[in-house]
Amino acid sequence: MSTVTQHRLPVPKLLARRVGRALAEFTMIRPGDRILLALSGGKDSWSLLELLREWQAHSPIPFALGVATVDPMSPEYDPAPLRAAVEARGLPYYLERQDIYGRAQQHLGRPSYCSFCARMRRGVLYACARREGYNVLALGQHLDDLAESFFMSLFYNGELRTMKVHYRVREGDLRVIRPLAYCRERQTRDFAEATGLPVIPENCPACFAHPTERAYVKTLLAQQEARDPRLFRQLRRAMLPLMARGLPQLDEGWT
Ligand SMILES: Nc1ncnc2c1ncn2[C@@H]1O[C@H](COP(=O)(O)OP(=O)(O)OP(=O)(O)O)[C@@H](O)[C@H]1O
């Protein structure tokens, strides 16, 4: 185990508080959980990694933490530097190579290739968690992501939906958590920049085209927030029942 293990980056209080609040309100972590954090190497999952390390050091709830990256084998994405950075933090690291890029290219022209890649990646992460004995998968989506998904779902599918923040997968053996659900994207960006987290660029194997709908919704939300700074507070309140869908019950037995 590396000597760098004990060194944790200073986490801003507000960011830590928001993560703590989400973890508590949705009972995301249970004693003895083995959490596999999905690290793309972007600012969000890197921030989540540091926040969970901090939480692990101070929380009365004991849990284990490991880290996995899916390498979709796209020429734009090189996760090679991640292993050393994670292992220097004393955490187990799994690099899962799968030719998602090649398979996604066969799906070019489909409007849903982005979700195709995300689904493939998710399958790889579940398989890694099961193989290595983890029971929880932690993902780095934040409040901005949830709000964008909410409006995309509303505008393009006519549904009131967003990403769930804590749920059990269909097979029943894994739980998925999104501890950054109350955090803003600018907070993870600022944190990553201020602490010099080793962020790697380009993590989407489907970068042959940009998800324009998401960019449009992002701009729309930024314009509305400029008019009313309370926007995301209101959105969080409005989305709460949707975020909490499928919340595992405390008495159902935890895996
Ligand atoms: N290649 C990957 N390997 C492992 N986990 C991934 C990978 N790509 C994405 N994820 C996980 O899915 C989450 C959402 O992915 P998305 O592509 O939307 O990333 P993002 O919003 O740019 O976040 P990040 O800054 O962490 O890349 C990430 O925060 C991360 O937890």
UniProtKB/TrEMBL annotation:
This is PP-loop family protein. The lineage of its organism: Bacteria, Pseudomonadati, Pseudomonadota, Acidithiobacillia, Acidithiobacillales. PANTHER family: AMINOTRAN_5 DOMAIN-CONTAINING PROTEIN, SULFURTRANSFERASE-RELATED. ATP binds at A38, L39, S40, D44, V70, G140, D145. GO terms for molecular function: ATP binding; transferase activity. InterPro entries: Rossmann-like_a/b/a_fold, TilS/TtcA_N, tRNA_thiolation_TtcA_Ctu1. Coiled coil: none annotated. The keyword Nucleotide-binding applies. GO terms for biological process: tRNA processing.
